[in-house]
Amino acid sequence: MRWKPVVVQSERSDGSLVVTVGHPLVDAYLEFLRARARPNTIRAVAFDLKVFFSFVDKTPVRVTAADVMAFITAQRNGDGGGKVVSIDRSEGLSPRTIRRRLSSVSGFYAYLMVRDDTSVTRNPVPRGLVTRHQRSGPRRRAPLVRTPVTLPKVLSPGDVDRLVAALRTERDRAMVDAMLLGGLRRCEVLGLRLEDVRSAERKVFIADGKGGRQRLIPMSARFFTTLARYLDQERPTDASTDAVFVVLRGPTRGAPLSAFGLDEIMRGARRRAGLAQASCHQLRHTCFTRLREAGMSIEALQAQAGHASIETTRMYLHLTNDWLASEYLKASTRIDADRSAVTR
Question: Is the pLDDT of residue 97 over 80?
Fold first, then answer.
């Protein structure tokens, strides 16, 4: 019987996520990931493997490097005969999406090789293409998919004002303030619990950040003022959850607000404000860009953002309006001074 990959999500009695795709080896890998990755990561890997095996139409042990290369070409060109599908909100065929899917496939085969109980003895996802510089070793291999290095977009002060003015509730303003003033991720905003808000200290505890990293960060007084109005005036008193941000009306009133609900709030505010772009992550980028422009050190910015590597934080150097210009001005001034000294 031919294998047809289908992603199925369920929950155990303890509330933990279970994701399957329909093949014993793939399902075992997803179960293995439960102890290593966040639920959203497991979902993404499951969908990536579904897309891959729907295209190659083979069992895992029969996949070859040629199948992987054909998958890359089809994903890039979008001509997979109906098998190249967009499973996220990105373009689906962008270099970053293809690269992420290849990473999921490579991780799965690395798992099979470690198990050592299948016929898989090599990873069909090549590490890269060998270049002319053979003497420099494998580290000189060119990547299979080149991803452009782009800077994230930030909102102008005028766009921020229009967005905030378009929000309809104190709850929505408090959530936007958390991202705009504190740099919280969408999942971190939705994951806030009442005990995580430390108003007296003007700090917020992030108990479940990206990669499972926790952090205690300062927040602007404006956030706590807006949050207090929401808690006093809007949050249902009979809410059974300790989540800070909950649904305010409808049949699920008092239940934790979902990621879909927050996205709907942002879409509505964006439409009313007449903005083409204003996502949760752009609010986060805007926060860190403004903090850097105000003189916050890169090390402090890294701690505020919860970045595992400071290299991720360094991109905010290039987003600031004044940093590059001031560095260029200092260097060009020195060059002009040296020229003057030579011509004298």
Answer: yes
